[in-house]
Amino acid sequence: MSRLIHIGYGNIVNSDKIISIVSPDAAPIKRMIQKAREDGTSVDATQGRKTKAVIVMENGMIVLSALLPETIGQRADQRDNSQESDGIE
């Protein structure tokens, strides 16, 4: 069963498909974002706000979010922990 998490402003991703959640401040991440935009493999879920997190997905797509990486990570952890306590795995 897929686990969906809210990444801000009504946008949701499948947490089972996330490889990493990183800050966009480092130069290599900025290059990765630019290349993904050029290749058409990025999804901008910031709703016009500043990008604070870059979510790298299994299929090579990247999702840009206006929420902090820590916030998204906490939401993913809460979702995983609540399903484990319910006996869902």
How many domains in all? 1
Would you count the extended β strands for me?
A: 6
**How do the helices and strands follow one another from N- to C-terminus?**
EEEHEEEH
Radius of gyration (CA) equals 13 Å
Helix content: 25-40%
DSSP strand (E) fraction? Answer: 25-35%
By secondary-structure content and strand pairing, the structural class works out as: alpha+beta
Mean pLDDT: 92
Count of helix runs: 2
Strand order of the largest sheet: 3-5-6-4
Shape: elongated
**Unreliable runs, pLDDT <50, ≥5 residues?**
none
N- to C-terminal separation? 8 Å
Oligomeric state as shown? single chain
Main beta sheet: strand number and arrangement? 4 strands, mixed
Please name the defining characteristics of this protein.
6 strands, four-stranded mixed sheet
Describe, in plain words, how this protein is organized in 3D.
The strands form two sheets. This protein has a four-stranded mixed sheet with strand order 3-5-6-4, sandwiched between helices. It has two helices and six strands, in the order E-E-E-H-E-E-E-H. The protein has one domain. The N and C termini lie close together (8 Å). It is an alpha+beta fold.
How is the topology of this model organized?
Layout: E1 4-8, E2 11-14, E3 18-22, H1 27-39, E4 42-44, E5 53-57, E6 62-65, H2 69-85
Parallel strand pairs: 4-6
Antiparallel strand pairs: 1-2, 3-5, 5-6
Brief summary of the model shown:
This protein is of the alpha+beta class and 89 residues long.
